[in-house]
Structures are given as C-alpha cells and as structure tokens.
Amino acid sequence: MKIRKACNLKRLYHDTIRDIKENTPDLAFIRSVCAGRIDDVVSMFREKKLFWNEPPVVDTPYGRFEGLDEIRSFTEGFISRFNATSAEVEPVYQTISGGRIALEVVISFVVDEEIEEVPMFVVVDLRTPKLLEEVRIYCHYSFVPDLTPYRKPIFQPAHYEMGDPGLLTGAMRSYYEALHQAPYCNAERIHKSFASDCIVGGYEPWGSAIKTREEMSSDAHNFGHHLSTYIPACVGMRYETIIDDGRTCVIEWVHIVSKQGQKERNRIAMSGISAYTRNDDGYLCAVRICDYAGHESEIDWTKTPVTKEEAYSINLIDEFPKGCGMKPQIDD
Questions:
Q1: Measured in whole angstroms, how far is the alpha carbon of residue 4 from the centre of its chain?
Q2: Mean pLDDT calculated for residue range 129-157
Q3: What does residue 256 show for φ and ψ, rounded to 5 degrees?
Q4: Going along 139-247, which residue ranges are E strands?
Q5: Contact 176, 244 (CB under 8 A)
Q6: Are 180 and 325 in contact (CB under 8 A)?
Q7: In whole angstroms, what is the distance from residue 154 CA to residue 151 CA?
Q8: Percent helix / strand / coil, the chain, rounded to 5
Q9: Cα-flanking dihedrals φ and ψ of residue 190, to 5°?
Q10: Which of 88, 227, 281, 328 has its CA 20 to 30 A from that of 56?
Q11: What average pLDDT does the chain have?
C-alpha cells in the first residue's frame, strides 16, 4: 500500500538500540485501541484511581477523557478522528522507570487506501503491572485533522520555577543546567552535552527522512543556539514527570511564561514532552521533542477548551525570579 505521509521517527533512528518489551500494558493499550478492542481497553482501568477519589484518564491532543465511559468513547472514536479506516502500531522506543512507561510509536493509519504515518508518545501511569491509572498521548497537531495548535497544560505546577536539575543525572543534568542558565541559556554548554553525531528531531512533520552525520551535528549545534535566543528569560520548561532508564530520559513538562515571553514571542503555556537518549559514552545521541512552540499565531480560539484570555493567563509570571534558573558556570 502506498505511503502518502511518511514520518521521520523510525527512519532517523532505524539503526539505534531498541529494547521493546512486548508483554507490557502500554503496548497492550495502544494495540487494543488501534484494533478497536474496546472492552479490552476499558478493562485496563478501574472506576477510580487507587489512592485518589478521581476517575482514570486518557489525555490526548484533541481532548481529555475521564472515567470509564469516556475512555470507551475515546477508543470508539480514535481511528475515525484521524479519518482512517484502520491502524497498526510499530514501537520504536520504550522507556520504563518509576511506575511509568513512555512508549514511542509510529501508527500507520489507512486513509483513502493510503498509509499516513503518525509518530506518537504514549505515556502510561501504572496502577499495577497490568492495570493503568492514566494515559497521556502526544503528537504534533498537524497530524490530527482539523486540530488547532493549542495543548492546555495537563499538570498544575507546584510552583512557578524550572525543575531542580539535581533530579537529573549526567548529560541530562548538564543539558538542563545549561538550558535554564540565566538570563539566556548557554548554547555552547548545551552543545557539549551532545555526541558528535547527535540526531535532533523525529516528531515534527517536516525535514528530510535520512540525514548525514554532518547534518546531524549541524542540527544539534544550531538547536542550542536557537534556544539561547529566548530561554529562560521568556519561557522555561518545568518538568512534571521524569522517566529515565539510564539510556533514555523522557520528560513531560509544562511551560512557565514571563510577560517578556508573552509580549516579545507570543508564548503561551502548553504541555509538551521530550526524549533524550545517551550513547555508550554518556553523551546525548538523540533529542526528540513534541510540542507546538512557534505555532501560537495559528491557534483558532473557537476550537480550544479554554478562552484566549484564560490560556494567556495560565502559568504567567511577571518575570523569572533572580533565584530561578542556573547561575552562569565558568567552564575550565
């Protein structure tokens, strides 16, 4: 069958290490969803979360589904939401740690007898080794028909500061210390966290499918310098979950936006996710980010779960306090 839309995720990382455990609830969930096994999906949840008087949740780019009835509705409508008649799942990465699993997949939707490949993160919070409490799905908005580029923050931050880098280790800690170095991130130190052939990308719907090592290195170098134009003075990433198996670290985060960031760059607080893979020498060999940054001007506010005014008020601060972010580091 002809591929109408091919994604970059599996092509960019076709020769990297993959360790997929097949008998896990994350794969069982998304495979059952794509196969239309509605009862199997619903049976993976209970009426309430184990330690909270709250319903189980499936949070998607196009809506939040709470409780068993809504999870059933989500499953029934998943394939049609992509204008497809069927779908198959190909796992690419799986990161298991701390009661959560982050699964990175390519879902091949059949649309008008052609294949449209969509890369997705599927993050599950475990209730037991086989049961789920919550699922959060991420993909670029452009892969979902008629979806506007706004993702209301899933998590409510405990405070409006960037995450403590001490929660991370090695290259990840170095990267985030450099990223949140006030007043603007240290691009050269970010670059020093990368391997020489680090790959940047995989979830965006553009770019060439296969890149040379020189292009990869250039991407990584330019990536850091791009971030240094606005982070953290304008916007910071506060990580809300960390799933790290020692090789790959997956971080779910929400934006904290300053008035400077809102005025100068039209930034709005949204939810996003990133995956960072280390090589055998401890350097980052891959950075995969899924968010809608830079598309704020395209938002259709008639299609969002909150008003424009409310969206612009979420996680907004006057400015990042002087104690927020990392102090400049003088390299040896």
A1: 24
A2: 96
A3: -115, 125
A4: 194-200, 235-244
A5: no
A6: yes
A7: 8
A8: 25, 30, 40
A9: -60, -45
A10: 88
A11: 91
Q: Tokens standing for 317?
A: 């601060």
Q: Are strands 3-5 and 284-290 parallel, antiparallel or unpaired?
A: unpaired
At residue 323, the pLDDT reads 46
Structure tokens at 157: 């931050």
CB-CB contact of 237 with 160 (8 Å):
no
> Cα–Cα distances in Å, from 241 out to 237, 273, 318?
12, 9, 25
**CA-CA-CA-CA dihedral for 152, 138, 112, 9, to nearest 10:** 140
Distance CA 9, CA 107 (A): 11
34-38, 114-118, 201-205, 310-314: lowest mean pLDDT where?
Answer: 201-205
Cβ of 51: how many Cβ atoms within 10 Å? 8
* pLDDT, tens only, 171-180: 999 999 999 8
Q: Bigger pLDDT: 97 or 331?
A: 97
Label residue 219 by pLDDT band (50, 70, 90): confident
CA distances from 56 to 151, 291, 331 (A): 19, 24, 47
Most confidently modeled range among 35-44, 159-168, 319-328: 35-44
Q: Retrieve residue 207's tokens.
A: 């770019």
Which parts of 220-302 are beta strand (E)? 235-244, 248-258, 271-278, 284-290
Quote the pLDDT of residue 327. Answer: 46
In the DSSP assignment, the letter for residue 302 is T
- In Å, how far from its chain's centre is CA 26? 16
